[in-house]
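Posting this for the archive.
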Amino acid sequence: MNMNLEWYFANITDEESAAAFLREKGVFHRERSCLSCHHQMQLGSRRPNGSPQWKCANKACGARMSARTGTWFEGDNAGLM
């Protein structure tokens, strides 16, 4: 795929599409295991600031973590856009 800034600005229009792009490129995790109970986590729940987060699929656990955890975005509060 030929990618340039024109493509990027035409296709990455919000936080969700930016996060999907970063997952596709391997910057964000595509899947996570819960650090507490080791079940699979699901991505999609939004934090109040609009950034994606992982939520444990084990209802008894329900642990959550930012999609930025374990990436070079960890600790950065700036938006992806």
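The helical segments are 5-11, 15-24. The first strand starts at residue 41 and ends at 46.
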